[in-house]
Structure to design on (277 residues):
């Protein structure tokens, strides 16, 4: 249905802001686009996940894409969010080729920078991988683009040798969605809502147009209680989205989440309510 010319559909009027970033390579695991550039009319882009970690990793089907708009803000590219997930095991020395649908017939894609996000699991720890690529409307550029290689992250050790890691990066702590003790704003949830309402500067553009409602914001509370990686999960109106992100930037440190007695990174979502008097 999604790809049929008989049906027409559209997502949010303005794509939601998503400034989150991932890892390009870690511990011998590397993700890259098959080509550095694709056509703006391409139905999909392809990516390669390579495993030279010395062990197995697991992965699935789910992915998402972001693009950089004309103001330099990263926003989510509307895609088919309805999916089934399958667990795959990628052995040491194996590669997996993945396709990401771009749906150019639904929302004409503009030339510029794009990012592909894909989550893998290493030793029960989730890691968000990211591969950056470009779209272009210059036919000669995308037709003559050469395939990307694994270098400089992996190289052959010599005749009969196995690939060796050149650049080693430490494993980042995972971001949890649920932990034994969830992070807490100073004073609790009511204090959080009071803080938001106290600091709202109602955008004049939205006020004049009578626009109100809720914006859902997701943040990551790190091990020190700092508020990081804000993402608009549910958009209401561009000016309201920007105001919600501004308020997030004003927040004090939280009490961090705890798992097995240790402070950990936790994703936390809350609403920012805009209501006209």
């Amino acid at each position: 249905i999604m790809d049929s010319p008989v049906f027409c559909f559209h997502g949010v009027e303005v794509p939601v802001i998503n400034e989150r970033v991932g890892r390009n390579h870690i511990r011998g695991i590397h993700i890259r686009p098959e080509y550095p550039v694709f056509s703006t009319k391409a139905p999909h882009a392809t990516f390669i996940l390579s495993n030279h970690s010395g062990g197995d990793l697991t992965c699935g089907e789910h992915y998402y894409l972001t693009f950089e708009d004309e103001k330099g803000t990263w926003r989510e590219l509307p895609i088919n969010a309805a999916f089934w997930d399958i667990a795959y095991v990628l052995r040491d020395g194996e590669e997996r080729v993945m396709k990401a649908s771009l749906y150019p017939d639904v929302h004409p894609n503009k030339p510029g920078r794009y990012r592909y996000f894909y989550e893998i699991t290493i030793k029960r720890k989730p890691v968000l991988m990211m591969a950056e690529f470009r779209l272009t409307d210059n036919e000669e550029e995308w037709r003559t683009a050469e395939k990307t290689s694994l270098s400089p992250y992996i190289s052959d050790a010599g005749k009969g040798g196995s690939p060796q890691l050149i650049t080693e990066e430490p494993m980042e702590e995972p971001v949890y969605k649920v932990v034994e003790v969830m992070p807490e704003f100073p004073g609790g949830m009511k204090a959080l809502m009071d803080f938001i309402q106290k600091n709202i500067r109602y955008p004049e553009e939205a006020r004049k147009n009578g626009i109100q409602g809720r914006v859902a914001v997701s943040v990551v509370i790190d091990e020190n209680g700092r508020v990081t990686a804000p993402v608009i999960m549910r958009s209401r109106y561009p000016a309201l989205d920007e105001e919600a992100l501004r308020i997030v930037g004003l927040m004090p440190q939280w009490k961090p989440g705890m798992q097995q007695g240790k402070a950990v990174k936790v994703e936390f979502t809350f609403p920012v309510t805009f209501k006209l008097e």
Summary: The first strand starts at residue 25 and ends at 26. The helical segments are 139-143, 189-199, 204-208, 238-250. The domain at 175-274 is CATH 3.30.2420 (TolA/TonB C-terminal domain).
